[in-house]
Design goal:
The complex is a heterodimer of chains A (about 375) and B (about 325). Chain A is an all-alpha fold and about 375 residues long. In chain A, about 70% of the residues lie in helices and about 0% in strands. Chain A has a single domain, classed as ABC transporter involved in vitamin B12 uptake, BtuC, CATH 1.10.3470. Chain B has a single domain, classed as ABC transporter involved in vitamin B12 uptake, BtuC (Orthogonal Bundle). Classes of the chains: A mainly alpha (about 375), B mainly alpha (about 325).
Chain lengths: ~375, ~325
């Protein structure tokens, strides 16, 4: 867990940081092997794992916006959907539809389109003060999906737009590895945002807008950067989502389905603990596995006598799991998973095992001091 | 459609004007009813309650299962069932206050708002898991009193009793809530707590009790809305019935009317209902919108942005 108030590591500390990194890598080795090898078992496993990878990308996108910048978005499904729509349309309109170049171009344009949409939304919405931003993003998400994604010329006249993968990524496992690579791109962006001048600016804005402004930080500019980066990451995730499903279908993002997506994204980033990268990733994987699209719970249900009950109620079961964890987190455990894992984490880092949470400003605390306070 | 236009311009204009007008007022009354509770909680707690739509749904579901005798339940008269429905909505609202809002009293408002989103999500899930026939409707006024469903027709368009009931109830409740804040001790105490919690405590107001009362009233308002709105042909009793579509518009309506003004919920609700009806693709007034499905939602979003950017206090609200 990185304390935001902590000074950046000095040059002399570098060796100790490397040592700590080594210990962590060793501890993470079984996890890395699990992540790489378990999905190889069969196509179904790879398919779920790739879905989890997409959720992780969205989680990191929300982490940049809500965790570092303290801005909330209840309409992130619009950026995911716009990415999926753009990616699928670029590839399916290409003459050599499945070649790697068009595919890469599709993903790039997907990220650019969502980033652009987020920039425009931000430019308008960020002038709105306080809690109203949450409301505007909620309405934006729903309205954008219901108007743009239902345009017949963009959604394949309600039949869906096919999204062909290049031959090299045809199998589910290979596609999963590709999704994992895209996750690494998002992790890199997240780390870069956190460590760069931009990240320090964002956190300054989040912690106290007036003070940041007094120190000459361009508040609106930095918020816009965060909105754009977050939108672009969600758009990239959307592109990966379209090729994962091998089609864009507007039904995935409309009304109740879209609303569920948007709320799940908020839930996972809050439950993970805002501004805690690792824990947000863990929470995203968890929520991908219990989501209605994941085959994990049906598998459990089939092996117990809950099969039909689950089949009839899968949307509602995911809702209840997400909501209970969200409420438990914000009421009793505001640091999220980070607060639970924190003591073990600091123990691995060579410090004492203590239940005291050293940096209260991670997790929901990240929103506590933010400008969205009304 | 071109046939009607050829038949007589006068006639077609009337149809295209009257039908959205009547629909707009009926829908607007619905937005206003849900919006009343939203305004009440914003005025008193400065939060957006995203669970308001689900409080309404709970009332509708409980009324439905008691009035239709689902499962082993008795087949109660509609009005008795409605009382149970209102009690359920108030109960859920009180539980929400006690379990989610109270423990986070001193936290940032945005976290409380995320909490109400969680409550909405949880309620949708629980409503879905309960065994009762989904997507049914509550009995219409005609069925309850054994009369016909509409009071009369204007140019062939039936004027439904339930739409008149919604409009009347909205006007009565908005006015009653306005009087409550202006002329009763409890109402004044609620306003005092919203302005300065510590100062309110100093003069002897129990902030906890006031918070419970506020949420109870919000639950009651949601319950009335739920029972009036879950009536066919426009409404059904189904999990998340009022969160998916109605709540978003109700919020926008409340913002348009002014989040701090209870009569504003009435004015905003009706205005937005009308704006939506006339922005609908079926209406001929704005030709460009015909290409876009759900253009009425686009209109809602544009109105919301416009109000927030140009006049954040809405039509009737005070400076926040």
């Amino acid at each position: 867990m990185v304390a935001d108030t902590q000074a950046l590591p000095l040059a002399g500390k570098r060796e100790r940081t490397l040592g700590r990194l080594g210990v962590r890598l060793l501890a993470a080795l079984p996890l890395i092997l699990l992540v790489l090898l378990l999905p190889a078992k069969d196509d179904n496993f790879s398919h779920v794992a790739a879905y989890a990878a997409i959720f992780v990308m969205v989680g990191l996108s929300m982490n940049v916006l809500t965790g570092y910048t303290g801005q909330i978005s209840l309409g992130h499904q619009a950026f995911l959907g716009l990415g999926a729509l753009t990616g699928a349309n670029v590839v399916s309109s290409g003459v050599h539809s499945a070649d790697p170049f068009t595919f890469a171009l599709g993903l790039l344009i997907a990220a650019a389109a969502s980033g652009g949409a987020a920039l425009i939304l931000g430019a308008v919405a960020l002038r709105i003060r306080g809690l109203y931003l949450a409301l505007v993003t909620l309405v934006f998400g729903s309205v954008f999906s219901d108007t743009i994604f239902t345009l017949p010329s963009l959604n394949g006249h309600d039949a869906g737009v096919p999204a062909y993968r290049p031959d090299a990524l045809a199998t589910e496992y290979r596609y999963y590895l590709f999704a994992l690579a895209m996750v690494l791109v998002c992790v890199y962006v997240d780390v870069w945002v956190r460590r760069s001048k931009v990240g320090r600016g964002l956190i300054a804005v989040r912690d106290n807008e007036l003070v940041a402004q007094a120190f000459g930080v361009n508040v609106l500019g930095y918020k816009l950067i965060a909105f754009t980066i977050s939108g672009a990451m969600a758009g990239l995730a959307g592109g990966v989502f379209a090729f994962w499903e091998q089609a864009f279908s507007d039904k995935d993002f409309l009304s109740v389905a879209g609303f569920n997506f948007a709320l799940t994204f908020v839930v996972m980033v809050v439950v993970g603990g805002l501004a805690n990268r690792g824990e947000v990733i863990a929470a995203a994987v968890f929520f991908a596995l219990v989501s209605p699209l994941s085959p994990l719970l049906p598998w459990v249900a089939d092996h117990t006598h809950w099969g039909t009950f689950y089949g009839n109620n899968k949307f509602y079961i995911s809702n209840v799991i997400g909501a209970v964890l969200l409420l438990q987190t914000i009421v009793m455990n505001p640091g999220g998973l980070g607060q639970v894992i924190g003591p073990f984490d600091s123990w691995f880092g060579g410090k004492k095992f203590t239940l005291h949470d050293p940096d209260g400003d991670a997790g929901v605390g990240a929103m506590e001091d933010s400008s969205v306070r009304a | 459609m071109s046939q009607t236009v050829l038949a007589g311009t006068q006639f077609s204009v009337q149809i295209h004007f009257l039908s959205p007008l009547i629909n707009g007022i009926a829908n607007g009354a619905a937005y206003g009813l849900l919006g009343l509770g939203l305004v009440l909680l914003y005025k008193s707690n400065r939060i957006f309650n995203f669970a308001q739509g689900e409080f309404a749904t709970v009332a509708a579901i409980v009324t439905y299962v008691f009035s239709s005798g689902t499962g082993w339940l008795p087949d109660l008269p509609f009005f008795v069932a409605a009382v149970f429905g209102l009690l359920a909505a108030v109960g859920i609202a009180l539980l929400t206050e006690r379990l989610v809002i109270r423990p986070m009293f001193n936290r940032a408002k945005v976290i409380l708002v995320v909490g109400t989103v969680g409550v909405a999500l949880l309620l949708i899930g629980i409503e879905g898991l309960l065994p009762y026939p989904k997507s049914q409707g509550l009995p219409t006024i005609g069925q309850v009193f054994g009369t016909q469903d509409f009071i009369g027709r204007i140019d062939g368009i039936p004027i439904l009793y339930q739409d008149i009931a919604k409009l009347l109830m909205l006007a009565v409740l908005a006015f009653a809530a306005y009087l409550f804040f202006q002329h009763t001790g409890t109402g004044t105490a609620i306003l005092a707590v919203s302005q300065d919690t510590t100062a309110a405590r100093v003069v002897g107001i129990s902030v906890e009790r006031i918070s419970l009362i506020t949420w109870g009233i919000a639950g009651l308002l949601a319950g009335v809305a739920g029972i009036l709105l879950a009536v066919p042909p426009t409404g059904t009793v189904t999990p998340g019935a009022f969160t998916g579509t109605t709540l978003i518009v109700a919020f926008s309506a409340a913002v348009l009317g002014g989040m701090t003004s209870l009569p504003g919920a009435f004015v905003g609700g009706l205005s937005l209902g009308l704006i939506q009806a006339f922005a609908n693709a079926d209406s001929t007034f704005v030709p460009g919108l015909r290409e876009i499905q759900n253009s009425q939602e686009l209109a809602v979003f544009l109105v919301l942005l416009l109000v927030l950017l140009v006049r954040p206090r809405g039509l009737l609200g005070r400076e926040a």
